[in-house]
Design goal:
Elements (H helix, E strand, L loop, with lengths): L6 H19 L1 H8 L2 E3 L4 E4 L3 E3 L2 E3 L8 E4 L5 E3 L4 E4 L3 E9 L2 E10 L8 E5 L11 H9 L4 E8 L5 E3 L6 H4 L18 E3 L2 E3 L4 H11 L2 E6 L8 H12 L6 E5 L2 H10 L4 E6 L4 H13 L4 E4 L7 H9 L3 E7 L2 H10 L3 E4 L7
Parallel strand pairs: 2-9, 10-11, 10-20, 11-15, 15-16, 16-17, 17-18, 18-19, 19-20
Antiparallel strand pairs: 1-4, 3-7, 5-8, 6-7, 8-9, 11-12, 13-14
Length: 352
């Protein structure tokens, strides 16, 4: 007589099997099961005088058998537990041996974050010196070396596309007026104020015209994406084309239907998917969903959801991946280690 698991037992078994298959789909997990020695990152980037802990994985022998050394201790040193310390600017290797097996990882000691190859984008421009989401803020970010800027686009009830972050003007303009009620004409009645400076609320067209004149990149965050699946989205796409910015623009949001609309009706416009959650596993699901809807960029809001495995999966899918808002220098170095493609810099980090 054949014996089989009860229905409930089979369900649990199937769930476990599916979970295992999902783990194996993530490049890092499968790779670590086969490789002898691997790391939790692609490389190590560190500031001179700082330290960073790396994780070392070995599938065959106990950790106490590791032997770890630096190829140039004048550039960087390493402890047996994997703590790397940067001593002077330069590049060396950390060599890990375990019996007959060995592996190495590159260490880049840097004097500043500006020496990295990763693309830096000014989040709402340069917020520490200028009123955010204004032309002066965008100009300031580019002046300090940003490759482009991120900005927020609202569709108002007058069908104008305006650049603003909040739902109303109280924080930035001192007026209790919804941004939805502002028109391209009435915007001149209000000033965006910060740091002793003021500027006007720009239109989307003015912003694209400025960035096109500078030859820089536009990261376009749609703040009300449910309103962009029609005439407004068509107008936005046409404006991007009008200023020759299709190769230097990314339209992104957290609404998959809007991503699908642009992918279907405006396939020449690059789109991105934004994930604002806190789960690394959910981030993987969102990454796959974004790719299936046509997104080729993936934006993570929270640094803790970033991982080397997630970056590997994004690149496997042909997507670029980065952090939406970077407030700490240490976070930028972690993104470099993982092989991220871009970081949106926040405040003073732009000029470091």
């Amino acid at each position: 007589m054949n014996k089989s698991l009860p229905v409930r037992g089979r369900s649990v078994f199937q769930l476990c099997l599916l979970f295992l298959l999902l783990l194996l789909m993530i490049p890092g997990f499968g790779m670590r099961a086969e490789a002898q020695i691997t790391f939790d990152r692609a490389e190590v980037n560190i500031m001179k005088g700082r330290s960073k802990k790396i994780q070392i994985y070995c599938s065959t022998k106990k950790k106490k058998n590791y032997k770890v050394r630096s190829t140039n201790s004048s550039i960087a040193t390493v402890t047996a537990s994997g703590k790397v310390h940067g001593k002077k600017a330069g590049t060396c290797q950390i060599i890990v041996t375990n019996g007959a097996e060995s592996a190495s990882i590159s260490v880049h000691v840097r004097n500043s974050i500006r020496s990295a190859d990763m693309m830096f984008i000014g989040h709402r421009g340069y917020q520490d010196k200028y009123p955010e989401n204004t032309i002066s803020s965008f100009r300031g970010a580019l002046k300090y070396g940003a490759a482009g800027v991120e900005f927020d686009v609202y569709l108002t009830k007058s069908n104008d596309l305006l650049i603003f972050h909040d739902l109303d003007l109280s924080r930035m303009c001192g007026a209790n007026v919804p941004i939805h009620d502002i028109t391209a004409q009435s915007r001149f009645l209000y000033k965006v104020k910060a740091h002793g400076k003021n500027d006007i609320i720009p239109t989307f067209e003015e912003t694209m015209q400025f960035l096109a004149s500078q030859g820089k990149i536009a990261y376009i965050h749609l703040k009300e994406p449910h309103n962009m699946n029609g005439a407004a989205g068509d107008e936005l796409a046409e404006c991007i084309r009008r200023y020759g910015m299709t190769g230097r623009s990314v339209v992104f949001c957290n609404n998959l239907n809007t991503i699908s609309y642009f992918h279907t009706h405006h396939p020449d416009i690059v789109t991105g998917h934004l994930y604002n959650g806190s789960s690394t596993m959910e981030a993987l699901t969102e990454l796959l969903s974004g790719a299936s809807y046509g997104a080729t960029y993936f934006f993570l809001v929270k640094p803790k959801t970033f991982s080397y495995d997630l970056v590997l999966k994004a690149h496997e899918l042909g997507m670029k991946i980065g952090l939406y808002k970077t407030k700490k220098e240490s976070t930028i170095f972690n993104l470099m280690d993982y092989g991220a493609d871009f970081a949106m810099l926040y405040h003073k980090l732009i000029k470091k």
